[in-house]
Amino acid sequence: MSIRDCTVIAVEGTHATGKTTLVHALTSHYRERGIHVTCTGEPARISPFMEEIVLHHVGTFDVVAELDALGAQLTAQLRAARHHHLLICDKTLINVVAYARMLLPPKDRDVLEAMTNLCRATSHLYDAVFYPVDTFNPRQHGDRFRDKVADQQDELDELLRAELKAAGLNPIVIPPGRKTAARVEWISARLATEGLISTLT
User: Fold this and answer.
1) Helix, strand or coil for residue 72?
2) What H or E segment, with its residue span, contains residue 9?
3) Residues in the chain with pLDDT < 50?
4) Cβ distance 9 to 188 under 8 Å?
5) What is the predicted pLDDT for the residue at 152?
6) Alpha-carbon gap, residue 88 to 72, rounded angstroms
7) Residue-level pLDDT at 40
8) Residue 63 class from Cβ within 10 Å (0-12 exposed, 13-18 middle, 19+ buried)?
9) pTM score, two decimals?
């Protein structure tokens, strides 16, 4: 089920799998073909809460920061879909839940479960979810956001797969060993086969 009249595609996966690069490449691919498309980024990277924690070492990942990340991501995706035919999302809402499950203490279990229920109940907003399995070096010079969770790449991958399954989302795994252009070609062919693109032109 689309968000109103917008087809919504998400690229999901653990960090350092090329998600953001792929989202921008896919957006360019469809824009060049005359499709009214946009994409969403990573709201957590511009969150004032995350900035304090990661860049200024003030506080720790807590329920307030995670709720802000969830709210920002949900709002960004709903608003971006309003006036476009195609939206390509950098991650699903489930990604926030997986991080929260990894980072929040047991005392926040009730809030975490409420976040989880919301994400599962709205998982139908995504028409397709693609999952890259290739992983790259999680540490990039100057990227302090990624450094904070660099050692948890495998743990997040495991949590994401479990959360996606529980939400009834069956991600489409992108065959490994492909560069960005080949990934775009493979995804666009798959979307055409699924009949998702024909509704946009």
Assistant:
1) helix
2) strand 7-11
3) 1
4) no
5) 74
6) 16
7) 96
8) middle
9) 0.88
